[in-house]
Amino acid sequence: MTKEKILWSVGQVSERTGVAVSTLHYYEKEGLISSRRNAGNQRRYEPNVLRRISVIKTAQTLGVSLREIKNVFQALPNNRTPTTSDWKKLSSNWRKSLQQRIEQLERLRDQLDDCIGCGCLSIKKCNLRNPEDIVAKDGPGPVLLKQGKR
Amino acid sequence: MTKEKILWSVGQVSERTGVAVSTLHYYEKEGLISSRRNAGNQRRYEPNVLRRISVIKTAQTLGVSLREIKNVFQALPNNRTPTTSDWKKLSSNWRKSLQQRIEQLERLRDQLDDCIGCGCLSIKKCNLRNPEDIVAKDGPGPVLLKQGKR
DNA sequence: GTAAAACCTCAAGTAAACTTGAGGTCAAGA
DNA sequence: TCTTGACCTCAAGTTTACTTGAGGTTTTAC
Q: 3-class DSSP state for residue B46?
């Protein structure tokens, strides 16, 4: 009993996932997904590529860069096609950073509430802009939230 | 009694806000902030530029593009330096989209929880990847969350 | 068997948000 | 005064995540 493998063409994967063919090429070039080729050199994907693409897109929604996603993939034992339990770990980790992001935004929201309340956004008082309660003196010193590059 | 205006040099604004001098130049070129010049053609900023920069940085944290921020600024009557009540409106609006973003991420988080629970991320079952409860058929059709460009 | 649709590669282009560099001017302190 | 640090302009470079295009091959449908 041979296991019949259903393979997908790039166009099928594209339609199935909503991700452009050119993007699939790009992901492959970047080492995020892989494919086999048929006799005519056309890409043929195993179904699990859909998993990978889902994870990529989900992670991007969370603000994870492709580079980081690739690292996560590569950290999987033997860089094998991830198993269910690998996915569990991934989901768990991303759940954590998602939670952190949510909390960060909630803090920001609450600070915005303060600002709306006080109508301030003033340099010396506003929490949002002066999160460490640093009060402006004549001398300088950074006052905004430190923010990574976006 | 003349109103003494304290003006800031670009270096001072940079240190005060944590935003690089080159970025301040860039924001000015893009029409997000403005400055006067002293006799020697050096930039001199009115204190309210700090407000603008705060708003820019805050909005960016919320995922608002510079273009959008500029539009908001320009929508202010006479493109004047925003007043306290202008800021209230801005804060309110941004508070709304912040809330939406939080809710979106919370949904994502809860769906991730489901995935962790079921260990799936499977094509046919996973909520996260199949948010509309579209069950995979043999025929294609996009399955991922629609996502704007990032 | 043939035409159209789908696929291939590789290079170059795009957009946002900045940064870097070259070449030169201005200002403040010893 | 002189030197050093802060400033100036303008052009070009950088990064991420893709898209577009040219020129050619393969597959599929009639």
A: coil
Q: Do A120 and B84 touch (CB under 8 A)?
A: yes
Which nucleotides in chain C have some atom under 7 angstroms from a protein Cβ?
A: 6-10, 16-21, 25-27
- Tell me whether residues A87 and B121 touch, CB distance under 8 A: yes
A20 CA – C10 C1', rounded, Å: 18
Structure tokens at A4: 């019949």
User: Stretch B72-77: mean pLDDT, rounded?
Assistant: 72
pLDDT grade for A9, boundaries at 50, 70 and 90? very high
* A126 Cβ neighbours under 8 A, 6+ residues apart: A114, A115, A118, A120, B54
